[in-house]
Amino acid sequence: MKRILAIAFILALAGGYWFMQNRDRFSPKPVATEVAPQRWQVSTAQQSAQTPVQTPVNATAAVNGTDDNATETGNATRPVYPADDIVRHDFVEDVSSYLVSRYLPARTKDNPGAQGRFDLNVKSLNIRYGVDFNGLGVDPADTLGARKTIFTHVLQGPTLDFLHAAYTPLFLDSLERALLVSTHTLASGQMAAISEEQRKEMLTLLAARLKAIGKTVAALARSDSIRSLVTKYLDDMESVSQAHLAFWSIPEDAAISAKNEASARIKTTIQTREISRQRLLQAIVSAANPQDMDATELIYMAQWVYRRGQEDPGLKNVARAGELLVRTAEAVAERANEPQPEVEQIIGGDNATAGQ
């Protein structure tokens, strides 16, 4: 009996020693990972499972771990996406819904033609989020201060990379959710949901649009010659305004020659401005080769990039933002060629993760 107890005691000691040597396999030490500037995520996962996904395409798989996000029956729950304090989740979801609303399927009341159409105006999009600040963690009452806060925060290399890596999956899934609930009116007056063919068309059109915008922004940010042409165009626009102001400031009893001279100056300044505008457009087309973008939109984008240059003189991060938008467009194009995935619908607002 004593011999049996001695053997059991020796085995217990050996088992305890083995457990101490291998305890990290069963209770790994917590590891803190920086998921954004000054934002850390604590995890007990193995180091090999912490490799960040730079350009996730399959949104759910890229963000979720299968073991941590499955129920006992094997059904996946909604992904938990990393979040930013200023560019919140509800911003991405609002953008997605807005983009889906700009898609007009063919042979419908709003688009009787044979091809689907995607009506996205960059200026309208900028006004929507640069005035109302939907989903952005800033004070909407202070418009200028809010814009400065957003651009100062977003136009930083680490922030841009984090937003692209963390929010591309959320963007793709948000588009899918918006498409699931989107309807359109047929020519007959009946309401219809988006079909799988229309879903693919919408995502393909969106990808092409985002790619064109991203390439144009990147080209505008890299070109010193375009910036000088924008400066000249803005100066000429100001000259036109001053010429009109001078004309309307002429007293009613002034000599007719003074009015004629002021009128001639208006014509001259307008002609000069139009010459500058054409030169600027030619430079943009040569540098970016934009597709399906009209002249007014290109001029507007050139001025937008120019204004960002006042905050980021080198415009390196603006160019980076354009490049990342192109990569996002590629992810959207890939999603268009995949079957529609199952995504969980959101009941009510989902702002709980906004301050993570």
What does this structure look like?
This protein starts with a helix and ends in a 20-residue tail after the last helix. With 356 residues, it is mainly α. It has helices at residues 2-21, 23-26, 59-63, 89-101, 122-131, 143-154, 157-181, 196-222, 224-248, 256-288, 295-311, 316-336, and strands at residues 31-36, 39-43, 103-104, 117-118, 183-185, 191-193. The protein has a domain at 89-186 and 193-336. 22% of the residues are buried. α8 (196-222) crosses α11, α8 (196-222) runs antiparallel to α12 and α9 (224-248) packs antiparallel against α10. The longest helix has 33 residues, at 256-288. The model is unreliable at 1-14, 16-76 and 347-356 (pLDDT under 50). The chain has a two-stranded antiparallel sheet with strand order 1-2.
